[in-house]
Amino acid sequence: MNLVPVKDLLAEAERGGYAVGAFNCNNMEIVQAIVAAAEAERSPVIIQASQGAIKYAGIDYITALTKLAAEQATVPVALHLDHGTSFNQVMQCIRSGFSSVMIDGSKLTLAENIALTNKVIEAARPLGISVEAELGKIGGTEDDISVDEREAFFTDPEEAEKFVMATGVDSLAVAIGTAHGQYKGVPKLDFERLKKIKARVSLPIVLHGSSGVPDEAIKEAISLGVRKVNIDTNIREAFVLAARQVLNDNPKEIDPRKVLGPAREAATEIIREKIRVFGSNGKA
Ligand code: G3H
Ligand code: 13P
Ligand code: ZN
């Protein structure tokens, strides 16, 4: 199959009341793991490339790997730019073959974020590329801030309504208590805020920083309108742990396939588990 826009997958998820997993890739093994998991679970899937992935592998390598994986797949696969930093980067990804982009203007003022998002939509929409934006600051677990300070960055429901009205963006990433990376404790999601946001906007909501969020909290968020769930850290953990295990057990091993093969299998397994939590299994 050809790569599909994220928008189409999320519209279907809205009808079915589930969420589609957006899994970050960095190399061939992780691309293969994501598609193998989606195939095994008969699920639509989103492969996404972060800034770090682009730096490490390059936009065109990521596109080539993902396009091939999608062509060989019998389930729908989207390729999405994660936390796009600029209009230029978005254009590079679209030219390379991405089917969806995120423009992350969350560090800008509301007016600047609206202007940048609109500029991206104007270029992307005629090409059938869907656009995700971010409002509020999600940040990372390594940010040296207290829970109260983090709360100051949560998405304001009124602003969310203004933002969506002013842009008509396809999906919106919100800050409701999650953060990127490994949590020190158990994250607490602000479901009341999510309800208020959802009461004011009707587009699919995106949850970032979802690794380490308890399954029940993820399910609750989905019941309140989250339709795309981003997972990176849990894949990294499974992948590297499995590789480390092989090397610990066989310190003399020098065949990369013997190290990365089990890592790919471990990544496939965790992605399958996530797909089942998100409820997208059996939907493709
Ligand atoms: O956007 C969140 C990613 O999990 C961070 O990715 O370190 O590959 O840029 P990166
Ligand atoms: P985690 O690494 O916390 O799963 O976050 C992934 C993410 O939000 C990518 O945009
Ligand atoms: Zn993110």
Describe the structure using short key phrases.
284 residues, 51% helix, alpha/beta, binds glyceraldehyde-3-phosphate, eight-stranded parallel β-barrel, binds zinc ion, binds 1,3-dihydroxyacetonephosphate, TIM Barrel, 8 strands
Largest beta sheet: what is the strand line-up?
Answer: 1-2-3-4-5-6-7-8
Q: List bound small molecules.
A: glyceraldehyde-3-phosphate, 1,3-dihydroxyacetonephosphate, zinc ion
Query: Which homologous superfamily in CATH is the superfamily?
Result: Aldolase class I
The helix tally amounts to 12
Order of helices and strands: HEHEHHEHEHEHHEHEHEHH
Oligomeric composition of the shown chains: single chain
Mean pLDDT: 97
Secondary-structure content class:
alpha/beta
Shape: globular
Report the CATH topology name: TIM Barrel
Specify Rg, calculated over alpha carbons: 18 Å
Q: What is the end-to-end distance?
A: 12 Å
What count of structural domains? Answer: 1
Strand content: 5-15%
Q: Look at the structure and give the CATH class.
A: Alpha Beta
Strand count, sense and barrel status of the largest sheet are: 8 strands, parallel, barrel
Percent range for helical residues? Answer: 40-55%
Known CATH architecture: Alpha-Beta Barrel
